[in-house]
Design a protein that fits this description.
Blueprint lengths: L14 H5 L3 H7 L7 E4 L6 E7 L4 E7 L2 E2 L3 E5 L4 H15 L7 E5 L4 E5 L5 E2 H7 L6 H15 L7 H11 L4 H9 L18 H8 L2 H16 L3 E3 L8 E3 L4 E3 L6 E3 L3 H16 L6 H32 L19 H28 L5 H4 L4 H20 L7 H12 L5
Antiparallel strand pairs: 1-2, 2-3, 3-7, 4-5, 6-7, 8-10, 9-12, 10-11
Helix pairs in contact: 5-11, 10-11, 10-12, 10-14, 11-15, 12-14, 14-15
Length: 420
């Protein structure tokens, strides 16, 4: 495993001494390492995460490991992913101020980032499982997707700056390769690390026998791997979002790359739909319908905010080489139809990416807690089957969900289907 000689994974015992000389850290925590409380709280698939608390304040310390934590050192990963995560956070903070945690310190050699401690925020996925609501959630997420998409593209950026950025992030090779395999390819054949709930075999067989479905998934993989429209978060799901009842932040952009406009919002929508389909296992009968309706409302608000903010930026910040005013407004013509056409293309791609993510999180590595926390395996399989078949519908017929109303109605229809 190729790691720098001076790299050392942190432990709660070693962290204090390692950060004691970093003024940006000690100034926020206060005191000295002997006064700090350090807890290792990483429960993700890849990294070490620590909460460090001192007399003055608290920070989060995130360190990349040279392997996939979920699997172990048999699956090596480069430490440079922390470098790209740091650069992504800096750009996201500029493109949507306040949407991501503030970075206080980055140590490239040790692959660690010290950042703002979000409290009393909780991981959104857990809040959805627990039946909690977040005020303004869809608006915040829709704005984030629109602002980072628009401002990270040649609709807004100078072409030279954007191409330079594409070159920088193109060095993030192994991390997007995980997405290329686990998301777009592995669900559709008997890949080594795949696993699914007992009882789903007939549905899985149906998906893998559908050559049109697999071809469309590969076409979307081509777009993901080859299209550099904008900087994408790359792993935007309810586990990459932290919320209180009134505040929401986006975290963990280490899967960052330049990719299609519709990727982030498509992946995000898939995770809300999986939360929606899983709810019969988490809510009692009196709460179920109301909470499922709220999740669908969040999806709707996300797309409404995305379209509105993208349209606003189109009118006020379209300063890049794409769709220049010289072709439209400067000739006394409107570019509204051009914007609407681009938004329709983005939605079409988003629906395809959404469907594939619904498959991936049920069939390949790294499943969602929305389903994994369900103890009744028969119920779990029945709910996952609805998720899988709606995912197939979105991949095969993305045009059937180009409006928010048709997407949400499709979810309601699959929510009452007895597929198993």
């Amino acid at each position: 495993m190729d790691t720098p000689d001076l790299y050392r994974p942190l432990t709660p015992q070693s962290l204090g001494d390692r950060l004691a000389g970093v003024a940006a850290v000690t100034g926020r925590i206060g005191g000295n390492p002997a006064d700090w409380t350090v807890r290792e709280v990483g429960d993700g698939n890849l990294n070490l995460v620590f909460i460090v608390e001192g007399p003055k304040g608290t920070v989060i310390v995130k360190q990349a490991l040279p392997y996939v934590r979920l699997v172990g050192d048999s699956w090596p990963l480069p430490l440079y992913r922390a470098f790209f995560e740091n650069h992504a956070l800096v750009r996201q903070a500029a493109r949507d101020p306040g949407a991501v945690p503030e970075v206080f310190h980055f140590d490239e050699l040790q692959a660690l980032i010290v950042m703002e401690f979000l409290s009393p925020h909780r991981i959104l996925r857990r809040k959805l499982i627990d039946g909690e609501r977040v005020e303004g959630l869809g608006t915040v997420l829709g704005n984030f997707c629109a602002r980072t998409a628009f401002r990270g593209s040649e609709l807004s950026m100078k072409s030279a700056d954007k191409k330079k950025d594409v070159g920088l992030f193109s060095g993030n090779v192994e991390i997007p390769a995980i997405t290329e395999a686990l998301v777009f390819t592995d669900p559709y054949y008997a890949a080594e690390m795949n696993h699914h709930t007992e009882g789903l075999a007939p549905v899985v067989a149906t998906l893998r026998e559908n050559t049109e479905l697999k071809a469309r998934a590969q076409r979307l993989l081509m777009k993901f791997a080859s299209n550099t429209e904008t900087m994408v978060h790359g792993d935007l799901h309810s586990g990459s979002i932290m919320s209180t009842a009134v505040d929401t932040r986006i975290i963990d952009p280490e899967f960052v790359q330049y990719g299609p406009f519709g990727f982030d919002i498509g992946m995000l929508t898939a995770n809300f739909l999986m939360a929606f389909f899983s709810q019969p296992a988490h809510r009692n009968a009196g709460e179920l319908a109301g909470y499922q309706d709220w999740i669908l409302q969040v999806i709707g608000e996300t797309f409404t905010a995305f379209d509105a903010e993208f349209g606003r930026l189109w009118k006020t910040e379209r300063t890049g080489m794409l769709y220049p005013a010289a072709l439209f407004e400067d000739q006394g013509q409107t570019s509204d139809d051009a914007c609407a056409g681009l938004l329709a293309d983005i939605r079409r791609d988003a629906m395809g990416f959404c469907g594939i993510e619904m498959h991936r999180r049920t069939l390949s590595l790294a499943h969602n807690a929305d389903f994994e926390d369900i103890g009744d395996k028969t119920l779990k399989a029945r709910l996952e089957a609805r998720n899988l078949m709606m995912g197939a519908e979105l991949v095969l017929k993305p045009d059937s969900a180009l409006s928010t109303e048709t997407l949400l109605e499709l979810a309601r229809q699959f929510n009452v289907k007895d597929i198993l």
